[in-house]
Amino acid sequence: MVTSVTDRSSIALVQYADRSLASCGDTIFFTAWILNNSEETLADVSLMHGFLTDAVSGKLSYATVPVSEDLRIPSLSPGKSAKFGFTYVVTYTDVAEGGKIVSAMQVRARSNSGNHRDECDATVRFKF
Predict the structure, then answer these.
(1) Which of 12, 21, 80, 97 qualifies as a cystine partner to 56, CB 3.0-4.6 A?
(2) Based on the structure, what is the number of domains in the chain?
(3) Domain around 122
(4) Which helix (H) or strand (E) element contains residue 36?
């Protein structure tokens, strides 16, 4: 499941997981795409992982993430995109508690016309 909120149509963040259901031991691959939908170059584009959480135990940590410097793009030309990958390995505790994992991300950028941002969540449910 993907949920996206856009302040301006000039930038879009699309995040998805490689599966909708996961079991203990599964590696979930999250992909985040930043898309410049405008006719102007976006500057200081930053992808921020807001949180990774499950229904009960709270904040989780990705198994792999791009280094912080890679999450910042000096500029993104019109019609161009950038792709980032994150992983999480499902634990027994995750599955035993039931529910789902939510990966929330946000992108911010600026241009001559102002500041831009978008948010997107990817959700993976557990199967027993």
Answers:
(1) 97
(2) 1
(3) 2-126
(4) strand 27-36
